[in-house]
Amino acid sequence: MIRLVATDLDGTLVDHNNFISIDNLNATKAIYEKNINLAICTGKTYSISKDICNKCNASYGIFGNGTQIINLETGEEIYSHSLTPSDFSLCYDIAKKHKLHIHFYTDNSVVSEELKYMDLRNFTISKKNQSNGITFNIVDNIKNFVDINKPKIFKLIISSDSTLINVQTELSQKLNLNFNLVQKRGKYKDFVINKEYDYIDITPANLGKATALSYLSNFLSVNTSEIMAIGDNKNDIDMLKLSGISVTLADSYDEVKQIASYTTKNSVAESGFAEAVQKFVL
């Protein structure tokens, strides 16, 4: 019996244009009507994801790849963990040494020196959806901004048109943090801004969707065997491994398909999420 459905957002519940199909939306309503908790598990921050979470009647949210857990029905923060000023400073120095783009997320803002990659993607989506839950703060010098304002940084992103494999290695040798390299190229290209690039998603050590989902399952007294997790990207793999039923979509990364217990016949645009809910929950 499934008591908790944990789903990724981009590429899983919503398509690459941040659109949720009617079938997927109806599937989230069916979960709600069966009194089963739905947890949105995303690399995005709460402010960026708030509108879609409300639309889907989600009960809980795991944001920033596990840096924050929020009870969406009450707005209560159950858990949070952010990067330290030292973490930021070292990442900043390495990024600037390689002339790379850097931006970060607080609980309600995106801070950047220039909108170029994931920050531009989020700005484009936010503007299109007229979302007012997030502000985009463009500053002259991001390091000076941090030194003066001392914001709570949940996630830091380093981006480039070129490959960042060697930069990820350098970062991991110098810092004890989570580094998730994503290559948005080829069929995984960022179609929202029509651009190919690499980015490194940086969060505090020993965190991730699986760690946060385990915390949430304990909080709800739900056994991991009673969880169905759905995801499409590499940062979903540990969450899928943790869960009793693990599902990925037809157009997911091949690495994710290799570990999932079920791959849907339909893609995200074809309502693969709804297919999984119909098969395992309803």
Task: Describe the overall structure.
The structure is a single chain. Helix content is 34%, strand content 24%. The protein is α/β, with parallel strands linked by helices and 282 residues long. The strands form two sheets. Strands 5-4-3-2-1-12-13-14 form an eight-stranded mixed sheet, with helices on both faces. It is globular, with a radius of gyration of 18 Å. The termini are close together. The relative contact order is 0.18.
Radius of gyration, taken over Cα atoms and rounded to an integer in Å: 18 Å
Note the overall shape.
Answer: globular
Count of DSSP helices?
10
Helix coverage percent: 25-40%
Query: Gap between N and C termini, in Å?
Result: 10 Å
Strand content: 15-25%
Helix and strand element order: EHEHEEEHEEHEHEHEEHEHEHEH
Total E-strand runs:
14
Largest sheet: number of strands, sense, barrel closure: 8 strands, mixed
Which runs of at least 5 residues are low in confidence (pLDDT < 50)? none
Provide mean pLDDT, rounded: 93
Structural category is alpha/beta
For the biggest β-sheet, the strand order reads 5-4-3-2-1-12-13-14
Features:
alpha/beta, 8-stranded mixed sheet, 34% helix, 10 helices, 282 residues, 6-stranded mixed sheet
List the helices and strands and how they pair.
Elements: E1 4-7, H1 22-33, E2 37-41, H2 46-55, E3 60-63, E4 68-71, E5 76-80, H3 85-97, E6 101-105, E7 109-112, H4 118-129, E8 135-138, H5 142-149, E9 155-160, H6 165-174, E10 177-184, E11 197-204, H7 209-219, E12 227-230, H8 237-242, E13 245-248, H9 254-259, E14 262-263, H10 272-280
Parallel strand pairs: 1-2, 1-12, 2-3, 7-8, 12-13, 13-14
Antiparallel strand pairs: 3-4, 4-5, 6-7, 6-9, 9-11, 10-11
